[in-house]
Amino acid sequence: MGSVALRQVPDIASEAEKCASEFRKTGTAVGNTQVAKNKDSVPEEWTGAAADAASDEIMKLGAKTKTLSEAFDPAADAVDTWISEVDTTRTTVTSLQEQWDEAISTYDRAISDAKKHYTAGDPSRKIQFDIAAQTAVDTQNNLKKQYNEQLDTLAAAAQTAANSINAARQTIVSDEAMQRGRSGVGVALFGSDTPILSGAAQWADAQEKAPEIAEALKKRPLTAADVDAFNSKYGEYLDNPYYAVAIAQYVNVDDLNKAALAALQTGYDQKTGFLISSGYETFNRNLGSLMVMAAGGSNLSENMADTQKSFDMLSGALVGRNGESVEQTVQKNLSQLMEFGWQEYEHPKIGVHSSATMYGYDIFTQLTGAAARDNKSLVLGPGFYDRVDGKNKSVFADIVDWDHQHTGVTTTDYMAQHPSEYALFGLAGKEKLTPEQFKSVFDPVQSVLELSDRPDSLNADDHQSILAQHEEARMRAVRSVLNVDTSFDVGGSKMNMTRYLTGWRGNAAGGGAAYQDLGDALGDVVNDASQYGTETMKRPVADNYPLGLQDPQYVADQTAYNRWTIDETNRAKIAQNFMLGYQDGLDHSSWNDWGNKGEDNFGHSNSKMRSWMGSVVAPRVSELADLLTDTKGTGGNGNIIDETHKHAPLDLSNQDLKRMFSKTGLFTDLTHDQPTLISGDGTNDSDYEGGHRPAWSRINSEAWKDYRLELKQQVNAEYGTSWASTVARKTAGWQTLINGLDEAPVNAKLAEDNEMVARNKVIRGMIDYAVDRAPLEQPFPIGGADFDYGVKTGVDAFLDKYAPTDLSDADMARRIEQEKNTSAAVKDAVTDAFLARKGVLAGSDQTKAELDREFLSGNGAHLGLNSFAAEMPPLEKLTDDQREAYVRFLGGAIKDEDINAKTSYVGDKTALGALQHDVNQEIATGEEFLEDAKEHYSK
């Protein structure tokens, strides 16, 4: 049957019509929503700028909904077209089915007629049968062909309809957004440019809830049930910026301090001191988050980042109680922090334990520090680091001042041994802390620092988002406060804040610990604050503006440039004062107090701060090299930004550098930063326990890399009469830096090894050194225990340099070996860079490749190289003899007959020789500097 052979297309008209109708109905519904129609409506509680912002967002959302509504009609039209195509196909298929059946009927009739006219066995009968069958087959094949063509046409129509529907969808939602799922579709529909809608709802709700939350905080007396009820009903709101600021409009800092003490009291029976409820633990930790947020802080945790983003956008337009702005609320709160920070409070008496006097800053730093440790993406706001209205300093500086006068690490240690008399949390249940953990709780400056670094959740490469821009403004304030001077004298005068916090705060002034966390929080903040900025600027020139100095655009550009230079200078000063402060700490301590592999007491006590030093210094190794270029004068550069320095550079005097490169200086101490390798190959921070590559290794590898790059650039400059001296001069600082860094591990080993080493090791080292450095006219005798033989001037000078009374034989051997290795490495780098020059080398009509072939076919072959090789092997693959011969062949330091080869090449022999000569002179100058550092600046 035709209905079996040529199956009919399903009748989808009814369902498809419903689909098209639903498309049109949805489009109409979207177009008729309130957000599309009521574009001028503004939340009643918003005024001024907020209303303008809301109107703008509503119009944007209205435009989006209109575009969305218009996308449904094309989709419905496509469905209608498809319905029509299906109907046409069904009609055609029905006709084909009928023709199929007719073909069968025609066949049956032909067979019947043949049977009537011809008897069985008659050949004509079979002929008629075959004719009937072939006719039927041909007809059916033709019908099948038409049927398939019709289905292909329908399939193409279906694809066209699908493409039309998809195209309509793509005008609203991209394929990429579709792949991201529902949230991606939501972003594509409405984007991130309409954050006011959620912010408006939260601010309105916060205004409603704030008075009742404030009343609950101020209720006296509090009971354990009150605390539990508060935690359950309001705890979730305290780290939300909208609610925190709204609450701060109804409570002051004194209210919050007293609430913390009252909540603690509800946890214990006042007579026995037994724990009756641990609800205060959660209450006070949440209160810490509220204190941070009410002071203008930010919460970038995963569940609060979007809310923080909308708040950052809207906060300037929000108006709350009695018309008070967010900025006014925050400033009022900051002022109260300074007012009540110095106020005394009585810690509740728990059982037999004595009550103790606390300060407002004790309460603030305890609770906010707890919040910081619970939420690594919680930070204090920029106002915390700026001068408070009506005050002469910031809250940050005020806490440092208060800490200097009242606490310090010694007091912290005492408090940690008596937590029941001072702690506001960590005393009960799963949250109970050990005395060691309480040390950090009671360290006020450490707590503030833990709230000052870049939030962990913020992408390090994000510099454009609202959150990133707000964070940069916050970090600008952090950098500013880290560069003010202390309000108190340190060593007889005011001191840079970073330098004080690094090497003078707490027990650091005596060579001990500056912080309970071994300096981790400070190092983290300094690292974030000292890194190069993402932009560079040039000073605007008034003559390039139509109105000159009076041109508004010039004034704006100059203002921006001034702000940028101040911030850039702050970055460099933070880094250099971190280094200086650390060196101060080393100078304060007694070397090898710990007796722990020669480790300095200060370095040991601030080991995590030391780990951060690598991250801070490594990006600035080129600045150290610049400073070490001129080691004869006083040094320093004034942090000047110029064509050489696109960012403000370090400003360290030669005296400062000598302290750092001394045997007991900064770089020697950094070699004791030896974190455990836990995975990978050790090239990434994450490969190490603690998340830092070894500090000295990081700086050293960065210096060597940058040196090689600078050397390559300088060596490849055009030849001239001063080419060699220019290369040597511009790389001299690098060579001194490399040498000084390489000496650091040797210095560290000198401090740890007190055993005598065999005399022959020293002699062997001296021979190697003397042969390398001073050509001798005749062999010199070796023997005995003393060095009073006929050694030429070069070796005598070496003895004067390396045989002071405080060096053991082992020490001398290590020093010799290190300087040999470093000197060889520097010279090899110079040669490598020279030999890497492309094209024809100066003074020769031969290319580098032609010269290589000449060497390979001559002396190279005598020394075991393949004379038929296509090119020279890499320098590091050559033996010492092969390398020496090759360098001499190109450098002209040996006669042709001495290398058993002939060459007409003479030009670059002078250039390479001059380069090595000038580099050797610069190396010698740098060595004098480093020797003076070790001799006169070591402890």
Structural overview:
With 939 residues, the protein is mainly α. It is 61% helix and 1% strand. It contains 38 helices and four strands. The strands form two sheets. It has a two-stranded antiparallel sheet. It has a two-stranded antiparallel sheet with strand order 2-3. α16 runs parallel beside α20 and α23 runs antiparallel to α24. The protein is extended, with a radius of gyration of 41 Å. About 8% of the residues have low confidence.
Give unreliable regions as ranges.
180-184, 750-805, 893-910
The share of residues in extended strands comes to under 5%
Structural class: mainly alpha
Main sheet?
A: 2 strands, antiparallel
Using the CA coordinates, give the radius of gyration: 41 Å
Mean pLDDT, as a whole number? 81
Helix count equals 38
**Termini gap:** 109 Å
Choose one word for the global shape: extended
> What is the number of strand segments?
4
The strands making up the biggest β-sheet line up spatially as 1-4
The percentage helix is: 55-70%
Q: How would the blueprint of this fold be written?
A:
Layout: H1 2-5, H2 13-31, H3 34-37, H4 49-70, H5 72-117, H6 123-170, H7 175-179, H8 182-190, H9 196-218, H10 224-234, H11 241-248, H12 253-265, H13 279-294, E1 298-299, H14 305-314, H15 326-341, E2 344-346, E3 357-359, H16 360-374, E4 378-379, H17 395-406, H18 408-417, H19 435-441, H20 444-450, H21 466-481, H22 497-503, H23 520-530, H24 552-588, H25 601-605, H26 607-617, H27 621-627, H28 654-660, H29 666-670, H30 695-715, H31 723-752, H32 759-773, H33 793-802, H34 809-835, H35 848-857, H36 859-862, H37 880-891, H38 907-936
Antiparallel strand pairs: 1-4, 2-3
